[in-house]
Hints:
With 507 residues, the protein is an alpha/beta fold. It contains 18 helices and 22 strands. Helix 3 packs across helix 10 and helix 12 crosses helix 13. It is globular, with a radius of gyration of 24 Å. The termini are far apart. Bound molecules: NADPH dihydro-nicotinamide-adenine-dinucleotide phosphate. The site of NADPH dihydro-nicotinamide-adenine-dinucleotide phosphate has 27 residues, from helix 10, helix 11 and helix 14.
Amino acid sequence: MSALAQASASDAYSIAERLEAGLKGAPRGLIIDGKSVQSVTGKTFATHNPATGKEICQVAEGGVEDVDLAVRAARRALENPAWRDMSAVDRSLLLNRLADLIERDAQDLAVLECIDNGKPATLTKAVEIEGSIKTFRYFAGWPTKFGGETLPVSPRSGAKILNYTVREPVGVCGLIVPWNYPMSMAAWKVAPALAAGCTVVLKPAEQTPLTALRLAELALEAGIPAGVFNVITGFGEAGAALVDHPGVDKVAFTGSTEVGKAIVRGSTGNLKKVSLELGGKSPQIVLPDADLDAAAASIAAGIFFNQGQTCTAGSRLYAHSDIHDDLLARIADHAAKLTIGNGLDPAVNFGPLVSEEQWDRVSSYVEIGQREGAELVCGGSRPQGLNEGFFFQPTIMANAASNMRIVREEIFGPVLSALRWSDPEDLVAQANDSDFGLSAGIWTNNLKQAHRMAAAVKAGTVWVNCFNLVDNATPFGGFKQSGWGREHGRQAMELYSEVKSVWVNLS
Ligand code: NDP
């Protein structure tokens, strides 16, 4: 059990009180060139606590001019010998130092993320903060190992040639992240970008700007030179300005497929490199021989963790007719056992949705599903007794069908749509009948079936008898409209670097 989980409820509440007191007063500034500054227009916006709906503090609203200043700072830092010529060992050291500082401040960061995003602080610490520490440590290992190769070329002239490749940083990177895992998503992008020697301008989501700003402050404290890591808080227009800016060489984005498409269109001016981690509608495929206890627990966690606001959420359940009713009853049982409430309470494992807008969206999908003929098994509305904040019950909808919107569209909330199947010939085709291809779960004790299905399912990640396992060592990303490119592993280092082929005539 984490230290935070062991802490009494009053500990997290008192940390929150201290943090909120510190955030009152001047609006939180943008981080440009190593300094906290207000936006050029002086505009600010409020960030709210989703468990209470109340304002936490004001934050600088960055716009086009601020993006320009941040990009220029990142460009100068890219060419500054203090960063450009830093040895691989020293770059590793800085990333490890940043990981140390996140570790030092883990408790505060977990509570900060909890009040800004709503997710339970115990889970925030275990997943987001500890995950971010691991991410920085993992990528701290790469600068000393990521290089080119010598290649056996055969020139027609017969000349004696030495050919080798080198890896160079792609340049200034615009990193645009969503609100569902604010700190982790920032770490997944910042860590490989800095490991590759790039400089960055990070644009967090408007709902969750606070941990991104703190992360950049910790980076400065770690000794990462000014201008290497800039943060522009603000709205979609700030993200769009980053995408449009000719001084940005690469954009890495996580968020909705719709905005992902806008980013592709917006990046054509200077044909910047683009990587995208977009939406999902992941199938959970359950064969009749599956271990139903294990499947039910994991399927429930796969859709209800983080209140379903997870790109890999297993939101489409394909359960064989023989076990369908039993499995649904078991999943509903897990849903009923979740403790819903303010995430500062260590007993809580299911918090509010991030915003009123998201609450309305999820609620409207439940209505749409019922109108289309699906049946509400449990949930579907605000939990009793939780009248403030954006709480929504864990929800299961049965009798769903392939053509329903609740099966085709990303709801991004705690809503499981269950479909019944009996024809194995048709099963994989049904699971693949989606615009998305981020991940899939397969539940069976039949080894051959498991491998056949893992091969046939169109998804960037396939979990067999498990779900939602993610690790920095293995690539993560989507097929189809779930994205371009892969985060984590060597693939992430490749995203943030250019390869150069050098020919040297030795004749
Ligand atoms: P968005 O995709 O709109 O936002 C993600 C990030 O992109 C935010 O930082 C956002 O800024 C920024 N952004 C918005 N518009 C632009 C633009 N035109 N150019 C560049 N950057 C932009 O997600 P939302 O927060 O609006 O959520 C809407 C839906 O998207 C959710 O309900 C969910 O279905 C899906 N989603 C999926 C995620 C995933 O990981 N698969 C993650 C988040 C959302 P700002 O916050 O200021 O708008």
